[in-house]
Amino acid sequence: MRTRAQLKARASELKDEVTKATAAFEDGRMESKRYKGFVDRASRESEEIQSELKAWDQVARYSGGTEAGGMAVPQSSATPGPGELLRPVSPYDMTPNQLESLVMAARNRTPLRIEIEPKRYSDPVALKSMSTRWGNITTKAAVSESSISSSFSAANFPPLQSPHAIGIGLEPTRVAGLFPGYAYNRQAISWLTHTGNSSASGAVAELGTKTDIGEEYSETTVLSTLIAGMASVSLQGLWDSEGYGEANLAAFIPFELQRDLANVESNLLLNAQSGTANATFNGLLNTSGTLTRAYSASGSLTPLDTIAAGINDMRTGAAFCFPDLAITSPDTLFSLRTAKDSTGKYLWNIISGAAGMTPDGETPVDQPANAAAPYSIIPQGTDPFAGHLWGIPVAISTQIPDGTFVLCSVKNGGGMVFQRMGMVIEYNMWAENLWTTNSAQWRAEERIAFAVQRPSAVNIITGLPAI
Q1: pLDDT tens string 182-227
Q2: CA-based, 20 to 30 A from 200: which of 142, 244, 433, 452?
Q3: Residue 191, SS3?
Q4: What is the pLDDT of residues 344-400, one digit of tens each?
């Protein structure tokens, strides 16, 4: 966490950089696209600096009157209310104050509870910090110094601990970020669907009797599912890792705990089955009533033809819509992207335009290779899209089965995430078994639900080739 002086110095540098870039743009020495990208990045960094400065103000205000036995975390008064459209709750939404409070609670052996509130789409994303088993909570033995595997030998001098820790590799696509979010404050949420009419309007003669179309409605209800997990560490591990930078276990362990929770959340939204493994809703791939189409190697349609037919199914079917989102696995996308015509040209490029030299048509890398990313990970929620197919953005995730290509018309009811409880992170070392073993424990949990309000706005294509 940067000091107040460092933040103010960087803000001054940023202001000078923007002034120079603006001058270069106005003089014609910088092209418009490059200038816009620079201004966007500068704006995001400026927002982060202001957020960190605000956090320092909060720490200064609260630290003077807080004792080891009564640590509290000031909560935001700008909490979104029920019904507001949200982006998915993310560990990277932790404020610097909350992260610092986690470290202080571990250092002072103080119980702590913080909640990462759902964020509006307009709120800036703070890059900060998620372990769970979907369904029943599974608690493993606490991390201890002796349990950390190492290549260090007693015959060598002890090494210097690098401040750069390496997080576990997890699927970076956050499925919740592909769909609109909705906050609610009850156990369940329901909605009405107009399912049909018993009659239809028609031409009527003068003074003739008009027809009542007899509208028919149904109500659908979905319950939230609790996703939770815990992680433990020995007191010695906490104390002896305080100088390890990113590898400070008081910060590293809850960071990885939350990332794991987000990973399970994405898998749940795609593959959950209501009534199985404590899930209370069906994920996207197990929703009943969706359109389906299967590719056949012996048929007349190629894989790309089959997807085109799937798009047509949605336009001529009950939803009468075009898809605005596609989701598939990286291996399936590879097979589609490398299909060639008789002259060796890539069919995907003919359909969608050349994707450039990036592996999947994603945005070219703009971060210098010599700039280390925090914890050396791709943050969950990173841009999931890998090009377009017939104008439809294609997202990839390793959590969707190979050979499956899902078409969704999200704006026509093709999926929505419901947030009952934002991500809650709690720290404790005073429970009976923790007191006995002198260990500390973090718990992370959230309550969410998912539904496809109009199943016919989703078409699940299966049987496609994948490597």
Answers
A1: 999 988 999 999 999 999 999 999 999 999 999 999 999 999 999 9
A2: 452
A3: strand
A4: 998 988 887 665 556 556 666 555 667 778 888 888 888 899 888 998 999 999 999
- Contact between 447 and 261 under an 8 Å Cβ cutoff? The reply is no
Minimal CA–CA distance to 21: which of 7, 12, 31? Answer: 31
Query: Of 413, 196, 409, 415, which Cα lies nearest the Cα of 321?
Result: 409
The number of helix segments (H) and strand segments (E) in the chain equals 9, 15
- Exposure on the CB side of residue 440, measured as CA atoms within 13 A: 27
Encoded amino acid at 135, one letter: G
E strand intervals along 397-455: 405-408, 416-428, 439-451
Q: How far is CA 320 from CA 288, 291, 416, in A?
A: 18, 12, 19
Rounded to whole angstroms, the Cα distance separating 227 from 91 reads 14
Alpha helices in 361-410 (DSSP H): none
pLDDT at 352: 75
Strands 416-428 and 181-183: parallel
- Amino acid code (one letter) for 176: A
Amino acid symbol at 247: A
Query: What's the distance, CA 17 to chain centroid?
Result: 32
The per-residue pLDDT for range 407-418, each reduced to its tens digit, is 999 999 999 999
The topology (CATH level 3) of 4-27+88-145+167-197+214-360+375-462 is Major capsid protein gp5 fold (3.30.2400)
Q: How far apart are CA 86 and CA 418, in angstroms?
A: 9
